[in-house]
Amino acid sequence: APLAVPEAAPRAPGRPRVAFWWNSSCGGCEEAVVDLGPDLAPLLGECEVVLWPFALDYKRRDVEALPDGSIDVAFLNGAVRLEDQLEWSRLLRRKARRLVAVGACAQLGGVVGLGNLTGPGEIEAAARTPLGAAAPEPVAPRPGEPRLPPVLARVVPLTEVVEVDAILPGCPPSPELVLAAVRRLLDPAPLRPAEVLAPDL
Ligand code: SF4
């Protein structure tokens, strides 16, 4: 069952704390945030960004040390492919008062979900097969070569592993939608369960 929303902790004073995280993703949803262009800097100035691997150095232990519920809004894009991503998703679920599934991969599996057409072993074998081979002929890892991190048996959408407070649809969501969603999320007015942040839908 998806990890449930934690007990609501009182909101800390000061600027809203915001986190961005990506699981298995093409990067397009991150790009949608950057595509806010001139709207991005003022928006970030209104917030305290506590996690954004795309732009800021980070350490997992720093996030683990945050009190539960102390991040006001966490935006997670991408589907969940790796065990590590499952752990990050659950960690951010605990730390965030509002957690948002950003993009089709987080909502439904999306493009990353196509990985379920074959098993993880077949994908790795295909990746290790030299171009031009008639059939999969995987080559062995070279000494010292980094190994793939542990993968889950199948790709799962974020919405399957944690309860989400809101969904920002699209592949990727348009910058206009991102901007409207951020405004909605920073508004303390209650959300409907798994509210879809798309005013025109
Ligand atoms: Fe990329 Fe689309 Fe998935 Fe976003 S929803 S990570 S743009 S494939």
From TrEMBL:
The keyword ATP-binding does not apply. The keyword Iron applies. Residues 26-184 form the NADH:ubiquinone oxidoreductase-like 20kDa subunit domain. Keywords: Iron, Iron-sulfur, Metal-binding, Oxidoreductase. Transmembrane segments: none annotated. This is Methyl-viologen-reducing hydrogenase delta subunit. It comes from Anaeromyxobacter paludicola. The lineage of its organism: Bacteria, Pseudomonadati, Myxococcota, Myxococcia, Myxococcales.
